[in-house]
Design a protein that fits this description.
Blueprint (H helix, E strand, L loop, with lengths): L1 E9 L4 H9 L6 E2 L3 H4 L6 E5 L21 H10 L4 H40 L7 E9 L12 E5 L5 H6 L5 E6 L1
Parallel strand pairs: 5-6
Antiparallel strand pairs: 1-3, 1-4, 2-3, 4-6
Length: 180
């Protein structure tokens, strides 16, 4: 199961020029013809894969949710192995420190990636390209061409909204429509 970010653009947009632009941001616009998605789009909309690599599982879109470590469960496991309370406390403190350091690295990388995504959205919405860019996040069991995807609703995103927070908190199967 992999996560992909797909896009909706006006059918009459300069797709080849936008693809060149997208590649400068580590994305692309590869035309998709997923029947379930196409049935949900307007006739004047086209559907695209933005993924340049294998998948978008490491992208920060929709990644606001963080997982807290199960320190209590770890303590119980170590106690059952016969570890002393002091040794358990030191081991958990060390694991917490490692997890916090890893979280800091992930946060910095996510911030950099969100900055890149914001720049990408702004570049696509530059006058002369398009006035609207749709982004859709979906976890696929199969491929982006043939999986059933039910768009739950369309969410219009104005220029004045906190786009970084919105991208970071994207919900699956909601089509976010960014406007110039």
């Amino acid at each position: 199961m992999c996560r992909f970010v797909t896009a909706v653009l006006p059918a009459n947009a300069p797709h080849e020029a936008l693809d060149v632009l997208a590649r400068a941001y580590g994305r692309r616009f590869l035309r998709l013809s997923n029947p379930s998605v196409m049935r949900q789009l307007a006739p004047d909309e086209a559907y695209f894969l933005t993924t340049l690599g294998h998948c978008d599982c490491d992208e920060p879109l929709g990644a606001r949710r963080t997982e807290e470590g199960d320190w209590e469960g770890m303590a119980h496991k170590l106690a059952r192995k016969g570890w002393s309370e002091g040794k358990i406390a030191r081991a958990i403190a060390q694991k917490r420190e490692q997890a916090e350091a890893a979280d800091d690295v992930r946060r910095r990388r996510a911030d950099d990636d969100l900055t890149r995504w914001l720049a990408f959205v702004d570049a696509v919405l530059t006058p002369g390209h398009v006035r609207e860019l749709g982004l859709l996040l979906h976890f696929y069991g199969g491929g982006p061409e043939d999986e059933e995807v039910a768009i739950r609703h369309r969410r219009r995103v104005g220029r004045s909204e906190d786009r970084a927070a919105l991208l970071h908190g994207m919900e699956q199967d909601v089509l976010y429509l960014f406007h110039a």
